[in-house]
Amino acid sequence: MTTIGFIGSGRIGGALAQLAVAAGHDVVLSNSREPQSLRELVARLGSRSHAASAAEAAAAADLVVVTIPIRAYRQTPVEPLRGRVVIDTLNYDPARQGAVPEIEASDIPPHLLLQAHLPDAYVVKAFNTVFFQHLPQLARQAGAPDRSAVPIAGDHAPAKTAVAALIDSLGFDAYDVGPLAESRRFAPGTPAQLAYLNPDGMFAAPARPASAADLAALLDKAN
Ligand SMILES: NC(=O)c1ccc[n+]([C@@H]2O[C@H](COP(=O)([O-])OP(=O)(O)OC[C@H]3O[C@@H](n4cnc5c(N)ncnc54)[C@H](OP(=O)(O)O)[C@@H]3O)[C@@H](O)[C@H]2O)c1
């Protein structure tokens, strides 16, 4: 069993936390406000969950998911994440979530931003390709013929192994795309972001499972 800390407990954080408690993990949730503001989510998730500050969620966990609007990335606590494995779900969508000046100035690409902010953490990009409502729809037991794969990328092999084990427990296969820089191949605007979308209905329609082979074909389309 693993304790998973969440910095951000909104749509993606809440959906991943739900899968995590169902898999028998403990979760520590946080947002930008006081822990009490998360009482409804904690009540829904049950006794394996509790709320804390972002720094406490980072410090208490074996593995931390940062899943906040990217414009707020500087508020991710640095010190408690030193030497820790961090899952980065962040996508850059300036129209909906606000612009980040250093990205707009091309000082750094969006997919490397969190790692640059957390130079001593082992950041693994994952779950940034799945619409939050599709997470529970796609999760399957290991060995299910229609189990989906999710792309991951990171620079630290043991961190990727830990993240892949967590992903497996949540109901997905991890598909290792390579170093963190390669996560550009499943960033917004790439074919891999559409992997689980039903061609008939877009986001509102039920998700379409995607295997590792399906993902590989989509990733190959991004240079
Ligand atoms: N939604 C999706 O389907 C989806 C899919 C793939 C990737 N993503 C990416 O995943 C990230 C999260 O998306 P989301 O849709 O889950 O967002 P969301 O529903 O808006 O939730 C964001 C969460 O982050 C918290 N937060 C904001 N600033 C914070 C801070 N400084 N410290 C700690 N927590 C903070 C918010 O808490 P407050 O309520 O206190 O502000 C909220 O709990 C985004 O970067 C998005 O691009 C989303």
Low-confidence stretches: none
- The total domain count is 1
Which structural class do you get from the secondary structure elements?
Answer: alpha/beta
Query: What is the makeup of the main sheet?
Result: 8 strands, mixed
The shape, in one word, is globular
CATH superfamily: NAD(P)-binding Rossmann-like Domain
Structural description of this entry:
β7, α8 and β8 form a beta-alpha-beta unit. The longest helix has 14 residues. Strands 3-2-1-4-5-6-7-8 form an eight-stranded mixed sheet, sandwiched between helices. The protein has one domain: Rossmann fold. By secondary structure, it is α/β, with parallel strands linked by helices. The structure holds NADP nicotinamide-adenine-dinucleotide phosphate. NADP nicotinamide-adenine-dinucleotide phosphate (NAP) binds next to α1.
